[in-house]
Amino acid sequence: MKDHLGRPLVAVTGLGAVTPLGFGLDETWPALLAGRSGIRRITRFPTEHLRTTIAGTVDLPEEATGEPLTSPRRVERIATLAIEEALGMSGLGQLGSFPGPLFVGMPPVEVEWPDRLSLARAALARGEEPTYRAMTAAAAGRHDIHDTVLGFGIGERLSARFGTRGAPVSITTACATGASSIQLAVEAIQRGECTAAIALGADGTVQPESLIRFSLLSALSTRNDEPERASRPFEKHRAGFVMSEGAAALILEDYDSAIARGAKVLAIVSGCGERADSFHRTRSNPDGNAVIGAMRVALSDAGLRPEDISYVNAHGTGTPENDKMENFGMRAVFGDNAPPISSNKSMIGHTLSAAGALEAVFSILTIRDGRMPPTINYDEPDPSITLDVVPNTARDATVRHVLSNSFGFGGQNTCLVLSAEPR
């Protein structure tokens, strides 16, 4: 079966997710529909003197009796859980032998504070001040640190674990990363380079350096006294996003191949749109051209008109500027008849590199169950936001096509159209 441009249809046959609301879809999706928040106080590291002390953390069982994992180790761990769930749902391939490539959306990696402290202690033990030179010398032979921060090491290890074909592709496009990994996998199948692929978005960077950097940008909510009410996309008193962690994996297949093996098709990735504006390192261009362009290109790529979209899964970070920009872009694309739009980030926070993949998963579940998750913490409307944001309570609806928006720092924007299986 081909799409309107003569390309193979790309089916989704497996989904997996890890979020602050739970491990796996059976924990996360019902909580999301119930409007439950996964935002909590940070206990992983000291937060005294920090402006923001809350986040959507994924606390792993092994950390209860040991040291917290560094971000690269956390990313690899939760990515593994998400892929395992997705593969189990798809029934594709034997364990350790997947018949296609791996596309990994993940954050940049660096030597973090636990490893830096370890190197500083090693230098002190040798009677040296913990200078950069002394810590570098102490790192000699520390293969554990080298393997952790090796740029593409996570993708290589995941590829080896699941037996994917070819070199894994690792990508980071800021907050659009998860959606970008899906786009790359879709295009590989459409070009006929493979009949199946794993697309992954994962992030585990709730750690001091990242928290401080986003705080210095005045991007984070400081509503520390009520963590569960801190993330409030589109609401009048929104004042920043809440950092979060998570992972999502999608098993993508050539539709005909999936049907031939008797797979259950969950949805079709019918369109991808990407536009960048190169306006600023963190801000989008106020003219909104890239945001509007990404949505329009995704619709065109899917062969759909704006009125065909039943629901939009928002980028919806809860920052004053981003939400206003998304409202502006939606009105430019949909006019006065914009479909309902809601933000999962109101409940799980902003999972950064994982966000686009997680929101694609939630978009597919919205199609499957005919139920749109809410935007919680919507207490007072903002007159400048003129959209139906599905406030506070999930809503039943017939949903055939979902537009999922991912707008990243630096003006990197990727939009996906997820559709019900062709009738």
TrEMBL record:
EC number(s) stated in the UniProt entry for this protein: 2.3.1.179
Native organism taxonomy: Bacteria, Pseudomonadati, Pseudomonadota, Alphaproteobacteria, Acetobacterales
Keywords: Acyltransferase, Transferase
Superkingdom classification of source: Bacteria
Recorded metabolic or biological pathway in which this protein acts: Lipid metabolism; fatty acid biosynthesis
Entry keyword annotation includes Acyltransferase: yes
Organism: Roseomonas elaeocarpi
Limits of the Ketosynthase family 3 (KS3) domain: 7-420
Top EC class of this enzyme: transferase
Protein name listed in UniProt: Beta-ketoacyl-ACP synthase
Family: Belongs to the thiolase-like superfamily. Beta-ketoacyl-ACP synthases family.
GO molecular function per UniProt: 3-oxoacyl-[acyl-carrier-protein] synthase activity
